[in-house]
Design brief:
It is built from 20 helices and 23 strands. The strands form six sheets. Strands 1, 2, 3, 4, 5, 6, 7, 8 and 9 form a nine-stranded mixed sheet that branches. The protein has a four-stranded antiparallel sheet with strand order 17-18-23-22, covered by helices on one side. Helix 2 runs parallel beside helix 3 and helix 17 crosses helix 18. Bound molecules: serine.
Length: about 600
């Protein structure tokens, strides 16, 4: 059975059980700046679990593309993916555990003809916070289905973000692979960490399309399903290497004998190119922060693998073409945004060639140091902090001087079974970049904020803030000063009296609205005349003219300011904007203090 067939079967089956088919949500969640990507089928329906009357139907079925950046380090094995499709059935007060479990089993055995002996299940064992799922246990027993009991980590789902609907799960496994997660949303987790019972229990299930195809077709991994196979073959053709059935293949390059897990590289390349294509199709440009940084990271990781397979750029884009062709029938957005996708890949792959040479160099340095088991130094910097630990100082040096992304250096160290002196890196990073320790630690982990320069995000926020103030208070408001550090924004502006609470709230919500709209920020050279005609804010025209360049930053059509930058590429990277204080600064001047709440995963 191929992917098309499986999607159709699933949807038909649940339509037959009175479910309404709903179109997949965008990979970029709407109205939810707290998460970068859609990570689950239920995300677009989150509010229906607390407000079931707003749902377009009591029962819904979908096929939802998801991005799970938390799995990026696991990609390369048989089942993990960054981009995946989830088939799901949902209910908001329509049916409960019994139907969900029975229909799930019926679909597996009757529709997909899976032999019952291949199927096992699990339930939530309970803990101090939430009780054991006795009800599901009883249902499974009455169906004579074997189950195991697992703890919270495996069998309790959600919420996405820090609050929301959540509950115990039943999972179906086939041949030991987890293929279907049935979530019974019976609790609501509050911000303070407590749980209350939901009035109407909800159903949220997710079946990984790729994993199910593996089980159905008895393949060894998701890359041998029809979703990937044409791309794997294309990699074989272009590299002249075989994906093969054994994990280690010997090949010789530049007279060097290499033992490499070829399949792992194929898998990482294929997964990352596919994820890049889907994210790019949402018009996300490569960037140093937020979503754009995820794209950058995916392309760089794939580029590194393809270079090690002996491929020169442009390479990834040829694979993207294969994906675009095969997925466009189901996801036409890929075809529509083909040029944008290709450009993202081509530009970044090319830009990354040079730093990549240094990544290879770094690996050689580490290997040499490891082999001699001494604290070898380069430019007076130790390569290893002590035997078995890669020095943070050297990783920092490579980053500063050659642009080697720290997360890649860390990856290299890990490949060589070395630990990393993260504190050493953090210290230097903090000292030199004046970025908060936490931001750098997140970045170092290869986390979502990436190489966030919080002050850059704040800087763009002040442009929007000024405009919002003018919108709420009147055009006579002008900037009188601005001071940004990694903790907060301090912004002074001309206005004769204190703002009311409503005015403050209004300003804050306008700024967040603009952020959510993710308007692009464009930098360009301009003339005094043009700037004036656009009504651009120009505090220091004289200074700019003196320095010979008049640069204007435009945030969509919303704000134009003469300014030296730097700024984020699109407003969405800013994160959540929050005014914490409005006060007097001096006569006729008010002062706003604001912070940014950073983006996080769900
Ligand atoms: N939300 C659950 C998951 O993502 C079930 O769909 O696994």
């Amino acid at each position: 059975m191929d992917s098309r067939n499986l999607r159709e079967k699933f949807i038909k089956f649940f339509e037959g059980k009175n479910h309404k088919l709903v179109a997949p949500a965008s990979l970029i969640p709407e109205n939810d700046p707290s998460v970068l990507f859609t990570t689950a089928g239920m995300q677009q329906f989150k509010r229906f679990y607390t407000n079931p009357e707003e749902a377009p139907a009591k029962n819904i079925v979908t096929c939802q593309p998801c991005i799970r950046t938390s799995d990026i380090d696991n990609v390369g094995d048989e089942t993990h993916l960054t981009f995946l499709e989830m088939l799901g059935n949902f209910s908001f007060g329509g049916y409960f555990k019994k139907e969900a479990i029975e229909w799930g089993y019926e679909f597996l055995t009757d529709e997909l003809d899976i032999e019952p002996e291949r199927i096992t299940s699990t339930i939530f064992s309970g803990d101090d916070l939430n009780s054991r799922d006795d009800e599901s246990a009883g249902i499974l027993e009455s169906m004579r289905l074997k189950y195991k009991e697992y703890s919270r980590e495996d069998n309790f789902w959600g919420p996405t973000g820090d609050e929301g609907p959540c509950g115990p799960t039943v999972e179906f496994y086939i041949d030991g692979i987890e293929v279907w997660n049935l979530v019974f949303n019976e609790y609501y987790k509050e911000k303070d960490g407590s749980y209350r019972n939901l009035q109407t229990i909800g159903i949220d299930t997710g079946m990984g399309l790729e994993r199910m195809l593996v089980a159905l077709n008895k393949k060894n991994d998701v890359f041998q399903t029809d979703l990937f196979w044409s791309v794997i073959q294309e990699i074989e053709r272009l590299t002249d290497l075989k994906y093969g059935s054994k994990s280690d293949i010997e090949y010789i390059k530049d007279n060097k004998q290499c033992w490499v897990d070829i399949r792992k590289k194929f898998r990482i390349i294929a997964d990352h190119v596919r994820a890049t294509a889907f994210i790019s199709a949402e018009k996300i440009e490569v960037a140093n922060t937020g979503r754009g940084y995820i794209v950058r990271r995916l392309i760089r990781r794939a580029t590194r693998r393809s270079k090690s397979l002996g491929m020169n750029q442009p390479f990834l884009v040829e694979l993207a073409d294969v994906f675009i062709k095969s997925f466009s029938t189901y996801y036409p957005i890929l075809k529509e945004e083909k040029d944008f996708i290709r450009k993202n890949l081509i530009d970044e792959e090319q830009k990354f060639q040079k730093p990549l040479d240094w990544v290879d160099q770094y690996r050689e340095d580490l290997e040499a140091a490891q082999k001699d088991n001494i604290i070898k130094k380069i430019k007076d910097i130790p390569i290893l902090l002590k035997p078995g630990v890669a020095s943070g100082e050297y990783i920092y040096e490579n980053f500063q001087t050659y642009g080697v992304p720290p997360d890649l250096s860390k990856e290299v160290a890990k490949e060589l079974r070395l630990e990393v002196d993260q504190a050493g890196f953090d210290n230097l990073y903090k000292k030199h970049q004046e970025i908060s320790r936490s931001a750098s630690a997140r970045m170092f982990k290869g986390g979502l904020v990436g190489q966030t320069e919080i002050t850059t995000r704040m800087h763009t926020a002040t442009h929007i803030l000024l405009k919002a103030l003018q919108e709420v208070l009147g055009p006579e408001v002008h900037q009188r000063g601005s001071n940004i550090n990694e903790e907060r924004i301090r912004f002074d502006f001309s206005y004769p009296k204190a703002l009311t609470n409503e005015q403050v709230k209004k300003v804050e919500s306008i700024v967040n609205e603009k952020i959510r709209e993710n308007i692009s920020v464009v930098k360009r050279e301009t003339t005094v005349e043009e700037a004036k005609s656009l009504g651009a804010e120009a505090q220091f025209v004289d200074k700019y003219i003196k320095y010979g360049n008049l640069t204007m930053y435009s945030i969509g059509e919303y704000s134009h300011e003469l300014c030296g930058g730097p700024h984020v590429k699109s407003a969405g990277e800013i994160g959540k904007f929050k005014i914490i204080k409005e006060e007097s600064s001096s006569a006729g001047i008010r002062r706003i203090r604001a912070i940014l709440e950073s983006l996080s995963t769900g």
